[in-house]
Amino acid sequence: MGWWQEQKWQRWQARYPLPDAAWRNVCTTLPLLAGLSETLLARLGMRSWRVLFELRLSLPREVEWSIEAHLEMAAQIALMGLGWSDRQALEALGDTREIIVVPGAFRRHVQELDDFGVMHEFDDERAGETSWGGPVVLSLEDIERSGDWQGFNVIIHEFAHKLDMTGNMAVDGQPALPAHIDPKTWYDTFMRAWCALQDTLERGEVPAIDEYAATHPSEFFAVCCEYFFSAPDLLEGVWPDLYALLVRYFDQNPLERLHTLKSDHNDVARPSS
Is the pTM value of this prediction over 0.85? Predict the structure, then answer.
């Protein structure tokens, strides 16, 4: 983002400041934000507002969103880069300029070349879609299913693909990495887990995470990002080394927040003596 865009942002937020009441509502109603400190929530609020400034949003004609609904979606995007600097978080949006929300899951006719040079054609039902240089497409039904601690988040999934593309424009599960993470360590850690998932499916067993992750290393990365933020206990329980690597990559630890939430819930539920 250049100097001119930064000036536009400063003028825009001076004219249209973050609506505090709406943001407070989001902080109390979006489960995924529970456990964040007031300092982090304040940072997330400004970054969410910046996301809405940077990205054009197209909704179905019959749909009208409140400012809270806009902020809820933006908050889940901004949450991914909450541990990074403002500049890094902004750069993580990559080439994204638009989010297109469609009513529900949609179908695409796909042509795919396998490792042996054979072209496969099939129809694929999708909750979201991302492409290099293109918009992020999200199903409204699946947006409404996102935002809790259940291991599903179409917003995080599709923006994980955008992160993936910051590496080499390819969607291969290897985003641009910070200097403190060795690319070989990243590749080896993810491939061990991905191969373990393949082995689980080949044995006819039910995997711990969504089996869609087994379709391609890029999908494995995106699904793991979903679980990292919305079911960190499950991901850490299956692949602790992969979870620890994502903690280093995102510079945040959702599992600590989840443990705090569970502890607070138990304290409330425990009868007094």
Answer: yes
